[in-house]
């Protein structure tokens, strides 16, 4: 903390209390949840995850593919299930992160340590450099997007029912879950989802190999990819942020988001899926990589959705 970045005590209190409550409920009450409550929570986690990864991240933040209106509406509504922040704010933070990665102008600069990059950056005002240089980030396409503008305007009215109310009432009225267990599952799921997103900013910038560019702090982290639905191939992603797979390979088992986008392309809702030439990737690895390989670099045949279906 510094005088340039005063603490935001409201955020600190909310974050600390949420995590304490979630841990307590998981240890004491969530074991009482019915089977379908567990399944409902997992479904909600995956749905909200697709809203973040396939929606705000790969579609809007990086324009790595294009989507027809029904898919754009679906993705932004799924994003609201996560209950994070207004879409335009999320997008500005992420684009600023990519433009000024691991500098003072990076909102969650990994050079400031694990805690700061994971969650500490939300507990204080942005560094002055973030405010100064963040203004240089082009957001004109987002400002012109009618879907994003609508959700930004009515965010609280859309997010609160989708993120907190709906997931609490469905278990009670559909399979007779108790209210306290249902509410507990909502809190646990919400905190789990937040930390899955945060792990990309922290774990995937500190631990893992760097087969594409050893000069970057971002790493290839399969554990993060598992929990963040394919977002942990981060060394690659920072080299080719416009690749819709956010990874060299569409390895579905550790990249559910790629499977989702491929399925939407098969339906005709997603199109113009961007990906770099393999020779370009190989050349980058040879010139700047750390010499390691792994799941992200292994040459294997990936079955596409179109071939499976």
Describe this structure in words.
- 59% of the residues lie in helices and 1% in strands.
- With 309 residues, the protein is mainly α.
- The protein has one domain.
- α1 packs across α10 and α2 crosses α4 (87-99).
- Belongs to the fatty acid desaturase type 1 family.
- It is found in: Membrane.
Distance between the termini: 53 Å
Radius of gyration over alpha carbons? 20 Å
- Number of structurally distinct domains: 1
Given as residue ranges, the uncertain stretches (5+ residues, pLDDT < 50) are 298-308
Percent in helix: 55-70%
Instruction: Report strand order across the widest sheet.
Output: 1-2
Q: What amount of the residues lies in strands?
A: under 5%
Quote the average pLDDT: 92
> Which sequence of SSEs, written as H and E, runs from N to C?
HHEHHHHHHHHHHHEHH
Query: Which geometry do the CA atoms define?
Result: globular
**Total beta strands:** 2
Number of helix segments?
A: 15
Structural class: mainly alpha
Q: How many strands, what sense, and barrel or not for the largest sheet?
A: 2 strands, antiparallel
């Amino acid at each position: 903390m510094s005088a340039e970045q005063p603490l935001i005590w409201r955020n600190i209190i909310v974050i600390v209390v949420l995590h304490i409550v979630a841990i307590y409920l998981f240890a004491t009450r969530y074991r009482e949840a019915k089977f379908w409550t567990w399944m409902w929570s997992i479904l909600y986690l995956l749905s909200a995850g697709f809203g973040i990864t396939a929606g705000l991240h790969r579609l809007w933040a990086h324009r790595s593919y294009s989507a027809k209106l029904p898919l754009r509406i679906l993705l932004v509504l799924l994003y609201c299930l996560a209950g994070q922040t207004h879409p335009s704010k999320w997008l500005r933070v992420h684009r600023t992160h990519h433009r000024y990665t691991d500098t003072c102008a990076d909102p969650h600069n990994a050079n400031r340590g694990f805690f700061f990059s994971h969650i500490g950056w939300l507990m204080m005002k942005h560094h002055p450099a973030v405010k100064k240089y963040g203004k240089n980030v082009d957001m004109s396409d987002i400002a012109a997007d009618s879907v994003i503008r609508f959700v930004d305007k009515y965010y609280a009215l859309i997010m609160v029912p989708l993120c907190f109310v709906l997931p609490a009432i469905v278990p009670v009225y559909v399979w007779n879950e108790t209210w306290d267990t249902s509410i507990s599952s909502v809190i646990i799921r919400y905190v789990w989802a937040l930390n899955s997103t945060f792990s990309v900013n922290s774990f995937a910038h500190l631990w893992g190999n760097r087969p594409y560019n050893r000069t970057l702090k971002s790493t290839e982290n399969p554990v993060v990819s598992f929990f963040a639905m394919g977002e942990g191939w981060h060394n690659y992603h920072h080299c080719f942020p416009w690749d819709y797979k956010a990874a060299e390979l569409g390895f579905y088992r550790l990249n559910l988001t790629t499977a989702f986008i491929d399925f939407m392309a098969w339906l005709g809702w997603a199109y113009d899926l961007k990906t770099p030439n393999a020779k370009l990737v190989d050349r980058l690895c040879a010139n700047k990589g750390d010499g390691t390989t792994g799941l992200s670099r292994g040459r294997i045949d990936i079955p596409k959705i179109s071939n499976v279906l």
